[in-house]
Specification:
By secondary structure, this protein is of the alpha+beta class. About 20% of the residues lie in helices and about 25% in strands. It is built from 2 helices and 4 strands. β2 and β3 form a beta hairpin. α1 packs antiparallel against α2. The longest helix has 13 residues. It is rod-shaped and about 115 Å long. The N and C termini lie far apart (about 90 Å).
């Protein structure tokens, strides 16, 4: 379960902020973190399976005052299902005419004949 933890830490200078960030980075399961808040006194940690109580106790040992402000579950945004637009039909071209290669004699195609096996008075023959 991915969760977002906001911890209020007494960070008076840039050195204490970097200590808090390095401690959060070393914690197991943390994927991202940042300093938030109007007074830049909140540490926001996002991760999967982060032990917030252990993190706060470590921050208290190194920096002094630390309190959990908020713990909430982060839901991944559902990927948008994109409808594939139908592709335009591919035009069908007639086959190219057949030309003999150079140096070959080409016989003209014989004329088409209709053969009628029955003596039915066929006038085409």
């Amino acid at each position: 379960m991915k969760q977002k933890i906001v911890i209020r830490v007494s960070m008076s200078c840039e050195r204490s902020r970097s200590k808090a960030m390095s401690m959060a980075a070393r914690t197991a399961g943390v994927t991202s973190m940042g300093i938030t808040g109007d007074a830049r006194d909140q540490l926001e940690v996002v991760g999967d399976g982060v032990d917030s109580v252990c993190l706060v106790s470590c921050l208290r040992k190194k920096l002094g005052s630390a309190h959990i402000v908020q713990v909430e579950e982060v839901k991944d945004p559902k990927p948008e299902v994109k409808k594939e637009e139908p592709k335009p039909p591919v035009p069908v071209y007639p086959p190219p005419p057949c030309y003999p290669g150079p140096g070959y004699y080409h016989h003209p195609c014989p004329s088409q004949m209709v053969v009628c096996d029955e003596p039915s008075g066929c006038a085409i023959m």
